[in-house]
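Below is a filled-in request sheet from our internal design queue. Each sheet records the structural input a requester submitted and the sequence that came back. We keep these sheets so that new team members can see what a complete request looks like end to end.

REQUESTER: design group, bay 2
PRIORITY: normal
MODE: inverse folding
CHAIN LENGTH: 125
BACKBONE (tokenized):
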């Protein structure tokens, strides 16, 4: 898949990669899409993959918390290892969610509230 970006968006993506927080442009786009999934009002009404989305979101939040903000030299190896572990957790959560039965009681509002509470708790530490 190829994606066309405006010059402004392309500069933004390149700046994110240059910061050292991401290894490449694909990582920037994937993280942006994950955020969109959490914010998209259409997804609030979807139940077929809701369990998978909830578990993916939780794994994504854990990955974000684990990832160092900047990594160079020896830190880059630690970041790569953390990214590999996070990717495995994301893949496992997606597979588990895809295999789970539909959850008619799922609510994106409840998921957002749960993730917000976890963020507030983490920031207090």
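RETURNED SEQUENCE:
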């Amino acid at each position: 898949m190829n994606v066309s970006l405006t010059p402004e968006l392309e500069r933004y993506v390149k700046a994110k990669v240059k910061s050292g927080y991401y290894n490449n442009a694909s990582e920037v786009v994937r993280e942006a899409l994950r955020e969109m999934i959490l914010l998209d009002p259409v997804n609030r009404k979807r139940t077929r993959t809701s369990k998978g989305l909830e578990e993916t979101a939780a794994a994504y939040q854990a990955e974000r918390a684990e990832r160092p903000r900047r990594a160079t030299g020896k830190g880059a190896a630690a970041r790569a290892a953390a990214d590999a572990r996070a990717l495995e957790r994301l893949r496992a959560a997606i597979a588990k969610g895809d295999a789970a039965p539909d959850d008619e009681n799922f609510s994106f509002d409840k998921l957002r509230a749960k993730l917000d509470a976890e963020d507030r708790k983490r920031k207090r530490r």
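SHEET NOTES:
- The chain has a mean pLDDT of 76.
- The CA atoms of residues 13 and 26 lie 9 Å apart.
FILED BY: M.R.
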